[in-house]
Design a protein that fits this description.
alpha/beta; Rossmann fold; seven-stranded mixed β-sheet; 38% helix
């Protein structure tokens, strides 16, 4: 059994980025937990909206088989207003408590600054020192964040790892459908049709019917 941690800046990022892979890990007997770094700033998001999003999250996680969700409750969308070390230390505590072998995290080039902060903080928190358990770091793509970034070499998502989710695409779509407040109508990239289309495209790229794509940051093979 592997221990897997999916780190997301906001609720629904975990489903958009690797909902199929979460279901796949669960089906294979792995233990999957999700870490949500932020909570909607009360000055921008009314409490009832935040409560709705959390109910949707728990429903989505039941579909995927997430064993536990952690919430750091840093303010969204204001992560860049906080000292980076505070975010990194909070993530580090979860990592050293749960001790995952694999971490999935946002891509550094995403247009949303919260995603950029979470990426950097996770790299700091998972440095290969002090008996850190993490052996694999994989960045996922988040529709309406990753593809809207500037098309520059240091921000472009260049997939290097493709994971077959043919058997789990319906789980991914079902989990995203639980996020009723976040799902959009086509041609918005957060529509169920767009999510399926990306999974098909990533799969067809490598001869599969559906896949999720990732950028490998680091992998230690012993």
């Amino acid at each position: 059994m592997k221990r897997v941690l999916v780190i997301a800046a906001h609720p629904d990022d975990e489903v958009l980025g690797c909902g199929g892979v979460i279901a796949r890990h669960n089906d294979r007997g792995d233990l999957v937990q999700v870490l949500i770094v932020t909570r909607g700033d009360s000055q921008l998001f009314p409490p009832e909206q935040v409560a709705t999003l959390h109910r949707e999250l728990h429903a989505a996680h039941q579909v995927l088989g997430v064993s536990e969700a952690h919430f750091l409750d840093f303010p969204a969308p204001r992560l860049d207003s906080l000292p980076g070390y505070k975010v990194a230390e909070a993530i580090r505590q979860v990592i050293f408590s749960f001790r995952p072998e694999i971490i999935y995290l946002p891509h550094r080039g995403d247009i949303h600054v919260d995603h950029q902060v979470v990426y950097q903080a996770t790299l700091i928190a998972s440095r290969p020192i002090h008996n850190c358990p993490v052996r694999t770091l994989l960045c996922y793509e988040t529709l309406s964040e990753t593809e809207w970034a500037a098309p520059m070499g240091d921000t472009t998502f260049i997939p290097t790892v493709f994971i077959d989710i043919t058997k789990y695409l319906d789980h991914k779509l079902g989990a995203m459908a639980c996020y009723r407040s976040q799902v959009k109508e086509p041609p918005h990239p957060r529509s169920l049709q767009a999510i399926e289309a990306l999974a098909r495209l990533r799969g067809f790229t490598v001869g599969l019917l559906a896949a999720e794509a990732f950028m490998l940051v680091r992998q230690t093979i012993e």
